[in-house]
């Protein structure tokens, strides 16, 4: 299979090139902690250092469950104008770009680190959009990146923004609040504000009797079922406020069927091609 052989060669290419040509003067961070001082996977460390040296505007959307050896997507918010620059950086680090049908403007990159025999899956987001096929656009990415905070080696959303991004992700994308996200919401709700720009957006799609303040109260009380019941109304109102043309609806219907098939095949493809660990590393 020539295509598979090409993919194997690209992924096992050198992973740690000299990034000094990107920007020889790295940005000074207020916390004074270098990327290597936090317990991150080596490939994530190289990625963070390259983004910082290039002065790109980025931050984590959600912290990986295991930063030393992530098993799921690592979600990064990137400023739209830095899109091409980050693509070039990841290519230089040995990542391969994968198709992202049905995920709006997002980009997926897969990288292999031979020293730890570990795969890193990056999910790059260039706009804060939610719902089916990311049709519900908030326009909040610029403000969130401006308010980002440094947590040792990693740039992260401000806690207030992080609360609303996670809650909207759960309700508009998943329509449920998974147990692993409940712990994050419990921690973040202590700093959540009802006048946050994302809270204002949420208030515009809330059903009668609900508001950003009442959603914060429900999270404080851990009333996850009540919040989950909001999901259909929130999604429906948001989609009605973002109408699309008939030809776009037909295209989305076809895309939905394709996406459903890919979601079925993706685990099998992962096990078939990426679950094998006998690939030879290109020196």
Describe it.
- By secondary structure, the protein is α+β, with helices and mostly antiparallel strands.
- The protein has a five-stranded mixed β-sheet with strand order 1-2-5-4-3, sandwiched between helices. It has a two-stranded antiparallel ribbon with strand order 6-7. A two-stranded antiparallel ribbon has the order 8-9.
- It contains eleven helices and nine strands.
- The chain is 45% helix and 14% strand.
- The N terminus and C terminus are likely disordered.
Any key phrases for this structure?
283 residues; alpha+beta; 5-stranded mixed sheet; two-stranded antiparallel ribbon; 11 helices; 14% strand; globular; disordered N terminus
Describe the secondary structure blueprint for this structure.
Elements: H1 2-11, H2 42-53, E1 58-62, E2 73-78, H3 83-92, E3 96-98, E4 107-113, E5 118-125, E6 129-130, E7 136-137, H4 141-146, E8 149-151, E9 154-156, H5 159-174, H6 179-188, H7 197-205, H8 212-220, H9 224-228, H10 231-240, H11 246-274
Parallel strand pairs: 2-5
Antiparallel strand pairs: 1-2, 3-4, 4-5, 6-7, 8-9
Helix pairs in contact: 5-6, 5-7
The largest sheet, given as strand count, sense and whether it forms a barrel, is:
5 strands, mixed
Structural class assignment: alpha+beta
Count of helical regions: 11
Distance between the termini: 22 Å
**Largest sheet, order of strands side by side?**
1-2-5-4-3
Given as residue ranges, the uncertain stretches (5+ residues, pLDDT < 50) are 1-37, 277-283
Radius of gyration: 20 Å
Q: How confident is the prediction overall: mean pLDDT?
A: 79
Shape: globular
Write the element-wise H/E pattern from the N-terminal end onward: HHEEHEEEEEHEEHHHHHHH
- Per DSSP, what share of the residues sits in E-state strands of 2 or more residues? 5-15%
Strand elements, count: 9
**Helix content class:** 40-55%
